[in-house]
């Protein structure tokens, strides 16, 4: 069964929203939650500028990868004929976003080491693990 344009648009919105949320973390532009201590508050202006350049360069370099990820997710969902196939598409998208996020973290950690700063800790979700 081919998806109508209405369904395609409806499915595209959550994909774009999820990707934007993932990219916000990868890009390092997310604000700290209130009450959370920012680890970069003691940085010099020069260090802040260099970290910004590294984040910006990574965001620009990974742009094509993020677009390809969105397109492949859309294509997979369009081809999905069963709920299981749709679930598999979503799982593949999650894994691809996770790999890209980790790749970005490695790039930023390398830059932080170069600047003599500690690597940022792993982000752990507040949600309990699913079984």
What does this structure look like?
The protein has 131 residues and is mainly α. The chain has a domain of 84 residues. 68% of the residues lie in helices and 0% in strands. α2 runs antiparallel to α4. About 10% of the residues have low confidence.
Give the proportion of residues in helices: 55-70%
Q: What's the story with the biggest beta sheet? A: none
Strand content: under 5%
Structural class: mainly alpha
Query: Count of DSSP E strands?
Result: 0
Low-confidence spans: 26-38
Terminal CA distance: 32 Å
Total DSSP helices: 4
Q: What global shape is seen?
A: elongated
Mean pLDDT level: 80
Radius of gyration of CA atoms, rounded to a whole number: 18 Å
Helix and strand string, N-terminal first? HHHH
Quick summary:
With 131 residues, the protein is mainly alpha-helical. The protein is built from 4 helices and no strands. It is elongated, with a radius of gyration of 18 Å.
List keywords for this structure.
mainly alpha; elongated; 4 helices; single chain; 68% helix; 131 residues
Question: How does the SSE layout of this entry go?
Answer:
Layout: H1 5-27, H2 45-61, H3 63-79, H4 83-114
Helix pairs in contact: 1-3, 1-4, 2-4, 3-4
């Amino acid at each position: 069964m081919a998806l109508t344009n209405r369904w395609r648009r409806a499915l595209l919105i959550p994909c774009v929203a999820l990707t934007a949320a993932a990219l916000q973390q990868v890009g390092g532009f997310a604000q700290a939650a209130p009450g959370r201590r920012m680890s970069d508050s003691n940085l010099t202006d020069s260090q802040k500028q260099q970290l910004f350049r590294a984040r910006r360069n990574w965001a620009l370099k990974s742009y094509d990868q993020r677009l390809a990820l969105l397109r492949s997710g859309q294509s997979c969902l369009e081809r999905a004929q069963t709920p299981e196939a749709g679930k598999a598409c979503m799982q593949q998208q999650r894994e691809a976003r996770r790999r890209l996020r980790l790749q970005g973290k490695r790039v930023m950690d390398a830059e932080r080491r170069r600047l003599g700063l500690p690597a940022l800790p792993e982000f752990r979700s507040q949600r309990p693990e699913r079984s």
